[in-house]
Amino acid sequence: MPDSLLYRVPEPGSGWPDYFPSGTHQDPDRLVARLERFNQHHGLPQGLSVHVYETDATALGIGRKHVGTISVGSVLMAGEIDLQKVLG
Length: 88
Fold this sequence. Notes:
Blueprint: E1 5-9, E2 23-25, H1 28-42, E3 49-54, E4 65-71, H2 72-78, H3 83-87
Antiparallel strand pairs: 1-2, 1-3, 3-4
């Protein structure tokens, strides 16, 4: 798997704090840490997933190709974004 991956967490909907770690992330370890911290303080929405994209490695990250999706529950249990599970 290439190093040019992006990780996207969708907006959870209303009722969650503004600092929910949604959006696009480049560093998977930092994203996992943010999800763990948020979960410790607030819990997480049911059914939340992380979408993984391969990019062309430009600064804009254009040319995205969806690689796969993994549930946040699986991410928190493993303590990492397991690309083998993403690829399914």
